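User: Quick sanity check before I run a bigger batch. Here is a single chain. Can you write out its predicted 3D structure?
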Amino acid sequence: MTLRNQLLIWAGILVGGALMLFLFRSILLPFLVGTILAYLLNPLVTLLQRFRLGRGWATAMVLLSVLAIIVGVFVMIIPMVLAQVIGLVQRLPGYIVALRGLANEWIPALNQWLGADRASQLEGSLTRWLTDIAGLTNGLTQGLAASGATLVNALGLLVVAPVVAFYMLLDWENMTRGVDNLLPLAYRDEIRGLLGDMNKSMAGVFRGIGSVVLVLCFYYATALTLTGLSFGLAIGLMAGLLSFVPFIGFLTAFSLSMVIATVQFWPNWVMMVVVFAVFMIGQFLEGNILYPKLVGSSIGINPVWFIFALFAFTFLFGFVGLLLAVPLAAISAVLLRYAVKKYRESRLYLGETGGAGGDSTAA
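Assistant: Done. Predicted structure follows.
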């Protein structure tokens, strides 16, 4: 089979897979979550098997333990967080109105300090920023209005995803063995190495970024609650959960916090500075300690490509695309590095003389 035919076959498989994802994107969420859960829990099940525990019992023990932890967290934290989110959405328009009132009080002082022209520009920027915050409020309100469908989907997710994860964990070894047996014999070792690199990259993504998200959730939620900021728990969790999208989680939570802190604590500048310092410390921890230590260079993904993948897959497939973006970005980075490596070894890069020289050297 020629190289052209091989490329056409693989391109057809990729296009067909993307088309299937697009057509069934509305029902894929529980299956995708179940698959990710099975992928993450498989090392624990394999570890228990070393203690002469059957695959079925090991799978049941690990899955039930994880589900118990998740349900416990939901029972203890989710009602409180949901109450804060609803309260925040209801009161945020009032905070914006109050902040506009404070801004109107500052205008005479700003005119004297900055001059009329600069004060007018600053007032226009503040108005646009408050308008953006108001748009965010409307989006949150519309999201809550559609909570009925969201609740139904969540219930389906809680029922179907664990079942999918259980059966995939139970049959994981057979599935991986079956895939390995289907690999072309002539390229089996090379494809195995490529799949190993993909597995390492995806594990680095889930383990590293997941750890960063958990640490930041705990830090922001605890710190903002201790400052006495209204709805600090909900905003802190939002900042941590959105932190896997660079700057988006930080800017959203920071804007909301500073609006609320200004209205709540004014004219107590000390507390406003404390809230500001919480986010500055969080950014320092994230950029200089958490990401270098927990993520590092193990995932091998350029941040710009990662952000593009998140937006592109979310635009195409919705929330399912958001979940798919992380592993697919890792897989794409591995494939791109492999393609560059093969290109640099090819005659297209080396030329006829270089290719021949390279072949003779290798011999």
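The mean pLDDT is 75.

User: Great, the batch can go ahead then.
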